[in-house]
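Human:
Take a look at this sequence-structure pair and walk me through the tokens.
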Amino acid sequence: MQLELGYSIQVFLEDKTGIPSVLIYDGIKLPDEKPFITVEQMQNNLTAISKQNESIATTFRFQLGLYARTHAERSSKQDEIRELFLFEDIPLYNETGGLTSGFFNVSITNEVPIIPEDISDQTRMHRLYFDIEVERISHKNKGEI
């Protein structure tokens, strides 16, 4: 489910904003041209929500990096992405990239602007991170809901 959610978020953002988006993994090279968005997996948490672990809630966490050309562009795109996450359903893709009939929503937990330590590092200028969560519930005998 991790790959499916990350890929679905990447495709959703690219389709809705027109901004190139990349999944972060070991060895990935970031785009040279801004704006772009990164989608990075963070820690997940598992919580038993019924007796004898019959139902488990998994909280999948992602950090989205928005890399803009200017402060104004960053602010504008920040608002646009926030609105998408607040009010849109995200189509779910499977592990092979095929569109399924499912949808999901995300919760924004933080929006964090980052100021670069080295002002000569142009890639890290005008950067903001969204921390988001997706909760899925799995049942021992029924799979995921």
The helical segments are 2-17, 71-87. The chain has a mean pLDDT of 91.
